[in-house]
Amino acid sequence: MLKAKIFVELKPSVLDPQGKAVTNSLHNLGFEDVSQTRIGKYIEIVFDSSDHEAVSAEVTKICDSLLANPNTETYRFELVETKS
Amino acid sequence: MKVSVITFPGSNCDHDAYEVFRSRGHIARMIWHKDHDLQNPDLVILPGGFSYGDYLRCGALARFSPIMNEVIAFAEKSGFVIGICNGFQILTEAGLLPGALMRNSGINFICKHQMLRVESSNSPFTKGLKPGSLLDTPIAHKEGNYYIDSEGLKALQDQDQILFRYCDAQGNLSPEANPNGSLDNIAGIVNKGRNVLGMMPHPERSATESVYSQDGSQIFEAIESFFDGRY
């Protein structure tokens, strides 16, 4: 079986108010060297297949059609062998 | 006029929209998102709410509800569609409107009355409204921060697709009058074909005598005047 580890991130040009608020909180906690925080999503999908090429094509389709919004987000992923 | 209001799991302004059209003498129907028949409407409403719990991204899952195939086909054949609040988010996710609705710049959910400025009368939804006139309508959202790339923004401006902007009580478009950080104070846009409207404010919640403002009814009057002239 293969597990896709998918990272969905905001494009650099898109403002991230959540990340900005977290930066402010980190400053309040004393982490004054924090200059920027960007918040994205991490998604895991497990496939009943060990065909890297086919699963990779499928994950690309899944990301393009649903998991990432091409207007505001980019994505990247890696495939790892898994038993469950 | 025949109006079909779609109910997604988590919609919560569907009855408000239905009631406004029914009370104005139109044939209003509620359509469940799993249905495949829009029932031959003149106008489709995608209402406000939290479809699918806003999971993944607002509107991203509703966009794949079965009825959306019919809504997209209807819009592509120049059928008239309005998405309000969550409905606007669904329309951008479905690709019927450009851009995206992001988290409010202040992060919080905002629920308050907000002044809007009518920017164009060149649409079925603003026909007869004077550009520059002000509407007091409620907003209630956490993801209403309209974003589009600079090329897309220029296209919206050049093609007169921005119908409503957030403003103050005097009609000024200051950053202070922008509740959610939307680019160019954008509150509502139409597609290039001018048959699909998306807006974050709620005209259907400001259109009856029982509520604080009735300004939203001007939008329904505009739609009625458009359809009266059509038939």
Counting DSSP E segments of at least 2 residues, the number of strands of chain B comes to 11
Overall average pLDDT of chain A: 96
**Percent of residues in beta strands of chain B:** 25-35%
What class, by secondary structure content of chain B? alpha/beta
CATH architectural category of chain B:
3-Layer(aba) Sandwich
- How many separate helices of chain A? 2
**Termini gap of chain B:** 10 Å
Number of self-contained structural domains of chain A? 1
Fraction of residues in helix of chain B:
10-25%
- Quick one: CATH superfamily of chain A? Phosphoribosylformylglycinamidine synthase subunit PurS
Describe this structure in words.
The complex is a heterodimer of chains A (84) and B (231). With 84 residues, chain A is of the alpha+beta class. Chain A has helices at residues 17-28, 52-67, and strands at residues 2-10, 41-47, 73-81. Chain A has a three-stranded antiparallel β-sheet with strand order 2-1-3, covered by helices on one side. The termini of chain A are close together. Chain B is of the alpha/beta class and 231 residues long. A nine-stranded mixed β-sheet of chain B has the order 2-1-3-4-11-10-9-6-7, sandwiched between helices. Chain B has a two-stranded antiparallel sheet with strand order 5-8. Chain B contains five helices and eleven strands. Chain B has one domain: Class I glutamine amidotransferase (GATase) domain (Rossmann fold). In chain B, strand 1, helix 1 (14-23) and strand 2 (27-32) form a beta-alpha-beta unit. The interface between A and B is medium-sized, with 11 and 20 residues.
